[in-house]
Write a structure and sequence with these properties.
By secondary structure, the protein is of the alpha/beta class. The protein has one domain: Ethanolamine ammonia-lyase light chain (EutC) (Rossmann fold, 3-Layer(aba) Sandwich), CATH 3.40.50. 43% of the residues lie in helices and 16% in strands. Helix 6 crosses helix 8. The longest helix has 21 residues. The chain is globular, with a radius of gyration of 21 Å. The N and C termini lie far apart (48 Å).
Length: 240
């Protein structure tokens, strides 16, 4: 390749690098990574670990008046080794939900730390107000929102059994990676209940500042919930 062609290739590669947070062209010193790249890798790894083992800030929950219930997760180590523990509420948690929440709401909003407490701290303040505005714009009524500590996606079914909402949306922290530890997902299901399959759910994922913008995600979720209720289905059967 001539010099001009080589320069064009290098320029194109630099343009590609601007379009992705992936590690490209990190370089090396002999057989080892550059010191700055190794330090960045260790920093990103530490942030991911902190996101998994961290706790959602009380202020983030208090801002929206969210009360807290727990799953049978016990502790983080048990939770990571036994995913099923995050899909079922404790008996006390179930009683608290029944006591404090509206029964058979049109839309039930639930927040959970999941695998990234940082995702809730960083995104909830933008996602939830946008979601509420979108619900109002789409003529949908919200039930009593709350926070589930130690939740997995399947906890939607246990909550659905208790409250029987027409639709439920779970805002939950995603498994952190080395690109971001702040990614949130919004899982939605029409009439969730035990026995629901993954194909019955739908998701808006990668919600964070470098992915799907939180405010945009909140608006989109409301529109999807309206379509779910209109069509009385969710997941792969929904026509979007």
């Amino acid at each position: 390749m001539n010099a001009a062609g080589g320069n064009r290739g290098a320029d194109r590669f630099r343009e590609w690098m601007k379009l992705t947070p992936a590690r490209l062209d990190v370089g090396r010193a002999g057989t080892r990574p550059l010191t700055k790249e190794m330090l960045k890798f260790r920093l990103d790894h530490a942030e991911a670990v902190d996101a998994v083992y961290g706790e959602v800030q009380d202020a983030a929950l208090a801002e929206f008046g969210l009360f807290t219930v727990e799953t049978q997760y016990r502790n983080k180590e048990f939770y990571l080794q036994h995913p099923d523990s995050g899909r079922v509420l404790t008996k006390d948690g179930a009683r608290e939900i029944v006591r404090r929440c509206e029964h058979r709401p049109q839309v039930q909003v639930v927040v959970s730390d999941g695998l990234s407490a940082k995702a809730i701290d960083d995104n909830l303040a933008d996602v939830l107000p946008a979601l509420r505005d979108s619900l109002a714009a789409n003529g949908l009524a919200e039930g009593t929102p709350f926070f589930v500590k130690g939740g997995r996606v399947g906890v939607m079914d246990d909550i659905g059994r208790l409250l029987e909402p027409e639709a439920l949306v779970l805002l939950i922290g995603e498994r952190p990676g080395l690109v971001t530890a702040s990614s949130m997902s919004a899982y939605m299901c029409y009439r969730p209940r035990p026995g629901r399959k993954d194909s019955d759910r739908m998701v808006v994922s990668n919600i964070h500042a470098g992915g799907t913008p939180p405010v945009e995600a909140g608006a989109h979720i409301g529109s999807l919930l309206r379509k779910m209720i209109e069509q009385k289905v969710s997941g792969v059967k929904l026509e979007v």
